[in-house]
Amino acid sequence: MTDPNPAGGPVDALLLLSFGGPEGQEDVIPFLENVTRGRGIPRARLEEVATHYRHLGGRSPINDLNREIIANIEAELADRGRDLPVYFGNRNWTPMAEDTVRRMAADGVRHAAVFATSAWGGYSGCAQYNEDIERVRQQVAGAPTMIRLRQFYDHPLFVERFAADLRRAIDAAAPGARVVFTAHSVPDAADEVAGPPALGGHLYSRQVQEASRLVAGAAGVAEYDVVWQSRSGPPSVPWLEPDVVDHVSDLATSRGVRDVVVVPIGFISDHVEVIWDLDTELVDEVRELGVTVTRCATPGPSREFARMVVELLDEVESGTTQPRPGSVPALGRTRDGARCGIGCCAR
Ligand SMILES: CC1=C(CCC(=O)O)c2cc3nc(cc4[nH]c(cc5[nH]c(cc1n2)c(C)c5CCC(=O)O)c(CCC(=O)O)c4C)C(CCC(=O)O)=C3C
Ligand SMILES: [Fe+2]
To answer: Which positions bind Fe(2+) (predicted)?
Structure first.
């Protein structure tokens, strides 16, 4: 078996591997078909999500945000006198990972590090990216070896940047506003098997809880809630709850809360789940209840975030791990798509 945590040695390129998003109205349906291929998402949900993308002009911000992250990483590397090419590839939309890796092979890249743009363990945040790496390496002759940077839910730079933005949001909101952390929901069954079984499951929700605790602590917030958003799948299938809209509505009706600060802890940047599901849907739904929502910024486009990526790259090349403040494991540093452990995220 591949050593799941190998000391990497020097790499000759970095690949930022992400989800991808449409960049025009005509891309919306083909993109959604790529995302949901074989995943049992009801057609009605697809139509609904398509309307969100259409309202945004058919363009997801995700690719531009990732290009911004790459530019910041390049600047951070240049500051360190390091001349390392940074490539961009996606699972669901152009630039597709297989095309990028083909170009990397043609450019002579032999050993690549891979930054997958999710902080989390679990199938959607981690294992599915390992599947992507495995598939792409099978598709591309002469593909480089690919070693991933680890999960970063508790990286001090990630936590500190979120905490600083949370302080700013609290200062902008009415005094005493309730702080609500939100992350992408997943099916209960997926969370149960998230991480290697030996660690007891629920790696995703445990990391989200722990990241929220660390950010709240760093921002001096004593009381807060952790909730979930953007569920899909048939209503008969249980997903992590409570939903953010239900929760904020409940705070308003049963506890008289009028002001909330929403922290999109589950998202590195202002993805569609943030600018639509929170800034549009949540805001509209709770306005009728007299609730004002102040939304905390996301850390992705910051220089701190780029510095974190370069520090994670240092860890890969040196085979070390910096001290971590979190008490939940951070996995994901595996080679060529290997899972983080036996039976990890088994579906
Ligand atoms: C945990 C998690 C993250 C966070 C970790 C990470 O960042 O990776 C995440 C991120 C994202 N999810 C995204 C988009 C979508 N996710 C979908 C569907 C699903 N997501 C799931 C989970 C997650 N998703 C799950 C369990 C499904 C059900 C189907 C399945 O099991 O796969 C669907 C299908 C329609 C729908 O059902 O909503 C879309 C369009 C985008 C891009 C947004 C943009 O364009 O800005 C991003 C960053
Ligand atoms: Fe998703």
So the answer is: 184, 273
pTM of the model: 0.96
13-152+302-318: CATH class = alpha beta
* Ligand closest to CA 233: 1
Note whether 13-152+302-318 and 156-295 share their fold: yes
CA of 124 to the centre of ligand 2 (A): 7
Where is 275: in which H helix or E strand? none
Q: DSSP string spanning 71-127?
A: HHHHHHHHHTT----EEEEESSSSSBHHHHHHHHHHTT--EEEEEES----SIIIII
| CB atoms near residue 198 (< 10 Å) | 10
Residue spans of the domains in the chain: they are: 13-152+302-318, 156-295
Residues with CB under 6 A from ligand 1: 19, 21, 32, 35-36, 39, 41, 45, 49, 60-62, 118, 120, 124-125, 184, 186, 232, 266, 271-273
Residue 60 CA: nearest ligand 1 atom is 45
pLDDT band per the 50, 70, 90 thresholds, residue 201: very high
What span, in angstroms and rounded, lies between the C-alpha atoms of 297 and 314?
27
Residue 155 scores a pLDDT above 70: yes
Listed in sequence order, the residues at least 6 apart from 312 whose beta carbon sits closer than 8 Å to its beta carbon are: 115, 149, 150, 152, 155
Q: Whose CA is nearest to atom 20 of ligand 1?
A: 124
